[in-house]
Amino acid sequence: RCDMFTLQQRVQVEKRARDTAEENIQEELGQCHGALERLEPFCTDMGCKETLEQLQHSLTVLAAAVERATSAAEKLGAVHQEARMSRAAEVMVQHVENLKRHHLREHTELEEMKRLIQQNSRNRQLAETQDDMEPRLRPHPLMRTFQQGSARRRVSIAVIPKQLL
């Protein structure tokens, strides 16, 4: 977030620096061309003129090379930025996947707790209806104790009915 506040300023500073460097290179190349043109009247023999033409050709090649280098530098900067953004996107995708897994785990636990609470309330209702039944139809007291003991081990204290406590 801090980088976002200064991003526009940094972009402008870098653009100015790039433009200044390009202008300086173009100015130097222009001065070299000017110097070669000033030397041209003083070259009277053929060897001197050939050397002068080679220098002018070399300056032209150098100017083209500077243009290619500038273009390649911009492409390299774009590729570096793309790599940074790609890594940031990977991190975000990984974070979203972690959140999904966490949500699924929480949802599964919630559904399990709902199921246990419903089962517990059904058991309580069943126990209340069995209390109303005749004594001969009631299950054996040891069997009931065993069922209550296993329910205590499976469910958290928050869902154990008040009768069992």
From TrEMBL:
Q: Does the keyword Membrane apply?
A: yes
The keyword Cytoplasm belongs to this UniProt entry's keyword annotation: yes
Keyword annotations from UniProtKB, A to Z: Coiled coil, Cytoplasm, Membrane, Transmembrane, Transmembrane helix
- Which Gene Ontology cellular-component terms appear in the entry? endoplasmic reticulum membrane
Name the record gives this protein: LRMP protein
Provide the membrane topology annotation.
Single-pass membrane protein
Q: Which domain of life is it from?
A: Eukaryota
> What organism is recorded for this protein?
Psilopogon haemacephalus
User: Which Pfam families does the record cross-reference, listed alphabetically?
Assistant: MRVI1
Q: Where in the cell is it found?
A: Cytoplasm; Membrane
Location (main, coarse): cytoplasm
